[in-house]
Amino acid sequence: MKNDSNDILYMYMQASERFVLFNGLNFREFVNSLPNTLDSILLLKHQFDGGEYNLNVLLESASSEAIAKLVKENVRAYGDFCWIDFEEAEGLDELDGREIAELLYLGHAKTHLDPPFFRKLNNQFVYLAQDDGWFNKIYFRSLSTYYMMLGSLIPLKLEPLKVERTWLGIRKKKELTSIPAEIIASLAHILTEGLVFSFRDVKYTRTKIEIPAWIVGDYLNMDEMHDSFSDRDSKEPDAFIIFNRKEKIWESVIKNTPSS
Q1: Which helix (H) or strand (E) holds 21?
Q2: What's the CA gap between 140 and 124, in Å, rounded?
Q3: Which branch of life, at top level (predicted)?
């Protein structure tokens, strides 16, 4: 099916292993939603032509300047796009054979042998995508970083949806604040069941913006997830994130839902 639409965001959080599966999140959105700048990444699987080759790991890395170019690329066309961030270039030179093997396995199998957080790299993420935006598996050293990222991502996705113009015909700039991490964290128990936010079903009134979400289950196959959501989206949402337009505050509303 490979539905290319960007009007839903699916997430399944595996908290114990600190990863989240996504459909509807791409590399550009991820980078622009992070609480801190992404400075250096080691490219495990890619087709980028602007990296710097490291003789110890025999892979290319990208600096902040190269990442700025990557953000503008159609990385979805790469097929596999996998990387891990690192703090200091010296850390790459210190990696031993087993650690390099673990990195290669991450890019190849899109899963870990051991927890994929390396002391020598001090990495915060592992980003494993197949057709970027369609299937993304992202490991987070801290789930609080995931909550902050999601709190910026949702407003980022909302901004282009509603164009408002003044009586002069000039587009009215719309400012949405980031969603506080504690609001996102309140959804944690349903994110672990597989949750879809539907931007096609956002409701706007003078006083608020309502983003509905449905629990659909955990999926590795995103075609199956889309099929499940198509069956589910005629039913009442399981949760909402709501923006109060006057007070500029966010809240979450979760219905009583049985565990899946």
Answers
A1: strand 19-23
A2: 6
A3: Bacteria
Per-residue pLDDT band for 40 (boundaries 50, 70, 90) equals very high
Token couple for 251: 């809240």
Global confidence as pTM: 0.92
How many CB atoms neighbour CB 231 within 10 A?
10
- Alpha-carbon radius of gyration of the chain: 19
Tokens (6 digits) for 158: 């909302």
- What is the three-class DSSP state of 207? coil
Give kind and range of the element (H or E) at residue 188: helix 188-191
User: Token pair of 16, please?
Assistant: 């114990």
DSSP 78: G
Q: Which two tokens stand for residue 117?
A: 């957080």
Q: Which of 19-28, 94-103, 213-222, 233-242 has the lowest mean pLDDT?
A: 233-242
Residue 256's pLDDT is 65
Q: How far apart are CA 141 and CA 152, in angstroms?
A: 18
SS3 251: strand
Phi first, then psi: give them for residue 129, nearest 5 degrees: -120, 145
Band the pLDDT of 166: cuts 50, 70, 90: very low
The three-point CA angle 207-212-214 to 5° equals 165
What string of DSSP letters covers 117-138?
Answer: --TTTT-SEEEEEETTTTEEEE
In eight-state DSSP terms, residue 58 is T
